[in-house]
Amino acid sequence: AQSVAQPEDQVNVAEGNPLTVKCTYSVSGNPYLFWYVQYPNRGLQFLLKYITGDNLVKGSYGFEAEFNKSQTSFHLKKPSALVSDSALYFCAVRDIRGTALIFGKGTTLSVSS
Amino acid sequence: KAGVTQTPRYLIKTRGQQVTLSCSPISGHRSVSWYQQTPGQGLQFLFEYFSETQRNKGNFPGRFSGRQFSNSRSEMNVSTLELGDSALYLCASSPRDRVTANTGELFFGEGSRLTVL
């Protein structure tokens, strides 16, 4: 069965410091991986995706993610965190049966000033 | 281009009632899917529609149903509401169908928050 895991419920980082939000996946075949962000009382906003190609994927708002096949990981990163980055972040993998996404439990990112 | 629109944004129902939620996808998007978000279970896939046909279904009881109209707008219905149905229901649209390579992202609405008392 396909799944994603986000091992940290919460990540705390100071503004200006680099941030990493971790995600590992379990899929059969080639994974289609996504990161989404959710602000309070809002829907999910797409950040970036990995389909194939370069292992370092660049996305919206200065975020990037590194795909590592040997470690089955797809960690979200940003070189310098902003207070406005504070939100709930979801890693997801596409279900091989169709367009459904299988989401991780989410990681709350808190950036302090 | 307008985003995904969900109505109503908030609603309160009592146990045993039924509810209908509406979703208008981004213009030109033909695929609509629904997700349930709760603090305990996280985000769970409900179903996906394309061209008025349900293409995929998650692991939810038959009380949860949906449909898609010819203009791609979609509705989902929950009958005989239970307390555990309290959740944020998210609709997402995609420009791709199941035949072509489904590598695109989903575009989510802001959700309908259902409270069951």
Features:
heterodimer, A: 113 residues, mainly beta, 4-stranded antiparallel sheet, B: 117 residues, 7-stranded mixed sheet, 0% helix, globular
Beta strands of chain B, count = 11
Q: Let me know the average pLDDT of chain B.
A: 91
> What's the assembly state of these chains?
heterodimer
**Main beta sheet strand tally, sense and closure of chain A:** 6 strands, mixed
What is the rounded Rg of chain B?
14 Å
Q: Report low-confidence residues of chain A grouped into runs of 5 or more.
A: none
Radius of gyration of chain A: 13 Å
| Estimated helix fraction of chain B | under 10%
General shape of chain A: globular
Please state the structural category of chain B: mainly beta
Straight-line distance between termini of chain B = 37 Å
Helix content of chain A: under 10%
Write the topology of this structure.
The complex is a heterodimer of chains A (113) and B (117).
Chain A (H helix, E strand, L loop, with lengths): L2 E3 L4 E5 L4 E3 L2 E3 L6 E6 L5 E7 L5 E3 L5 E5 L4 E6 L8 E8 L6 E3 L3 E6 L1
Parallel strand pairs in A: 2-12
Antiparallel strand pairs in A: 1-4, 3-9, 5-6, 5-10, 7-8, 8-9, 10-11, 10-12
Chain B lengths: L4 E3 L2 E4 L5 E6 L6 E8 L3 E9 L2 E5 L6 E5 L5 E5 L8 E8 L12 E2 L3 E5 L1
Parallel strand pairs in B: 2-11
Antiparallel strand pairs in B: 1-3, 3-8, 4-5, 4-9, 5-6, 7-8, 9-10, 9-11
